[in-house]
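Writing this down once: the sequence line spells out the residues, with the fold written below as integer tokens. I am pasting one below:
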Amino acid sequence: MNRSLIIAPQWIGDAVMSQPLVAALAARGEVLSVAALPWVSPVYRAMPEVAEVIDLPFAHGRLDWKARRALGHRWRGRFDHAYVLPNSLKSALLPWFARIPHRVGYHGEGRYLLLNDRRSAPTVERPPMVAFYRALAGEGAAATSTANAANNPVMHLPAERVAAVLQTHGLQAGAYWVLAPGAEYGPAKCWPAAHYADLARTLHADSGQPVVLLGSGKEAALAEDIARQAGAGCLVLAGKTSLDAAMALIAGARGLVSNDSGLMHVGAAFGLPQVAVFGSTSPEHTPPLNARAEVIWLKEELKLDCAPCFERVCPLGHTRCLAEVAPERVRRALWARVETAAAAPQSSS
């Protein structure tokens, strides 16, 4: 038996984008345990290829040397391979302390002694992240192209789990919309609140169905403001659900609109009809890999030489890349995706 440990990334979107790597390793017979921080571990519990998810007891941003050493020592003899997805030094400590024989990861942050199968990072500054992770499986060129269908993340939640969450909030599967208006990285990734409110108002008027606003506790005030501007029809759950419940709410929705965010990738992995509005970041780096997704990015249309800037706040102060995406354009794009999905349904994830 090949027993493998994956050290997971620290962000929801990155965790979702690691699923094709997980699938590739499982397909060749590796039994997978994923060590993840608690706020991303639900993502891996939605991957049937993962045999075990281990919640790490570490604080974000801290080295926690003694705790990592103690945990690594307890793991000695458990694993044959380790795949270290983050590029930090601390992320490579656990496999090293555990003396896992084969430790794979990219060069970075002085990890020469910690990893014994070090891969060279792509020469492009920001490679497609799904392919970046998948290449750690060592499968060559086929793993490096985002266009490869095997690079589309796929997740699954039991139908009874989705039904239970929807019942808690008085929702019916396929009869509500989800908006995810936040982005952890910063406001240069966020479509304006007034635009989200306009979209929420028209979606509710078009369909008579509720619009659910999801996000973290940091985005609760933003979601409340959008609901206030939109009027009737909004259900604000930002900051009021666990990630596991938020994933179930996305899986059961009729459609999703979001910024480039972790919840965008969750929607893509569930095959949801969706529209993703990109601003400061690039869909060439972190696209929603989903046949039912549409990306709106105004770089070429507006001849924005500043895009993508990858800044947290627009350095020019205008955020035209987002502000000039009209709500009506997003509404039409979403309806088109919903109608196309209804005409040619794909197998459920």
